[in-house]
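Sync notes, pocket subgroup
Present: LS, DG
LS reminded everyone that the earlier model was apo-only. Rerun requested with magnesium ion included. Inputs:
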Amino acid sequence: MTIRYLPETLINQIAAGEVVERPAAAIKELVENSIDAGASAVDIDVAQGGLDRIVVSDNGKGMSRTDLYASLDRHATSKLPGDDLLAIDHLGFRGEALASIAAVSRTKISTYDSESGESWEISCDAGKKSEIVPCSHPVGTRIEVCDLFYSTPARLKFQKSERAEFMAVKDIVTRLAMAYPQVAFSLTHDGERKLQFHAVLDGKARLSSVLGREFGENAMEIAAERDGVVLSGFAGLPTYHRGNAQHQYLFVNGRCVRDKLLTGCVRAAYMDVLHRDRHPVLALFVDLPASEVDVNVHPAKAEVRFRDPALVRGLIISALKMAIHEGGFQTSRTVSTSALGALGRNAAPSLPLSRGAPAVPASYASSYSSSGPAYALREQPSASYQAALMPDLAVPHAKAEDYAPLPEDAPEAERFPLGAARAQLHENYIVAQTEDGLVIVDQHAAHERLVYERFKAQMAERGIEKQGLLTPDIVEMEESEVQILLAQAETFAKLGLEIEAFGKDAVAVHAVPALLAGRLDTKRLLFDLVDDLRDQDQTSLLEGRLNAMLSTMACHGSVRSGRRLSVTEMNALLRQMEETPLSGQCNHGRPTYVTLSLKDVEKLFGRA
Ligand code: ADP
Ligand code: MG
């Protein structure tokens, strides 16, 4: 057998397999070329998921006659003038996308050369170029790709349904649109307009139109810098979460990348405020000198390699954590909006006009949620309220007179962000009046958060205080469960929980965290801890594991719903919430309170 050199067309077809494995990948390359050409508007028109036809038109700088001819050749690029792979300042640089696409389709390129004022057109059929002919074309370039993969039947067979291909197309266009807010995009499928984004100046506006207005309203701005690495973007409040991590986007130097780095960072940053199965929505942009990142890891450029991944990781985690702490007392604004929506629907069930339609006009929700943060935070509690504060979270039992209708100092208390407690409903919801509205607090969720934050503070200062039990609590369980718990006995001891084997199938509890003493169902706690330990990835960070255990303990030690509180107790809880970091959500990411402004309540009744 002799070695032979493959013909150019075959080489291009082979390369096409890596660069453009599906219509969405071809579209990504074409749109990136438009962005590299300085376009401010890009229109994408596809038929049958892109398998039949793709047209990408832009208003960029176009190509000269010679460039047009060369653009279809492999490894021909205008973007690496210095031959320096460490100085990549365009999205493209490999010079193989057009050659690959044209090798496996019928492609036609029309372009207006803004320098000479001439327009030219070229066609290419499965890699065979036509003559260049003059044409009439407006500013920009139009690339039409028909019958993608028709010359590589093997690849054609592997394409998914038109629907699936179109979903991928839409996803890629969305990602590009997020990264380039100043560029207008439109996407049409089989004659129907599917996406339309106008050019905007700020990234948040674009993110809101891509991820939904709700995201804009529930997002915290992220901005940080360390050693030349700049991080920006928006991250959802912990109370605004989804069931999967699909809506977490990372862009590196303007490229959308799928990197596990982000998943890990997000998990670490939200660990404390979000349940394991819930995922925040966020879009982060990392910009760093081209020499600090290798984008040439994969032909489709969907992966990157950082020279210093630990730096980027640390930056992302700390910036997210800081934002979460600053936004800690806020709960998702959408929570109150949706609560209002529900109220509105039930408010006027018998009105004939409102049958089938929400009683609250659609525009109402937006006017509510755009009204900005409900209150400023920094106010200090007044002296009389300091006095009413509980020395500890273990609220003493109320005396009958505590249930008197209104304490004298109520008006003063209304000045606090969470207002003056007025009632407890269904033994769990505290209703408080603020200066300009009302607040409903989920007492169990709120207390759980307070206990958890106390634990963490104690832990950081001097370790968790424990209280010995006069007679140990004996909890029977399966031998395997006993083993699981005993393996962690040392860790538990640090958390104030002292356990010891008691025979083969029982555990003796000798001490519990002081914060929980007297209010703990030790048996349930131990079983929950077993479950937690079973679930947990043994390699997870120690800090994470401790916090998870603290969170479980806090949940057990908090005021259960069903406990009646006096007005004084309720007010004490509200004041403590105001002073506690992250008190806007419980440890599972559920909001701890909802606020309604008086204006909104009036609107509900058609008064405003
Ligand atoms: P690369 O983008 O890596 O340079 P491509 O094969 O994608 O490689 O494109 C080859 C060249 O064709 C580009 O370097 C650019 O000069 C030119 N080109 C492609 N698309 C456009 C466009 N829409 N507008 C202007 N020039 C373009
Ligand atoms: Mg390119």
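DG: The longest strand covers residues 466-476.
LS: The mean pLDDT is 80.
Action: DG to write up.
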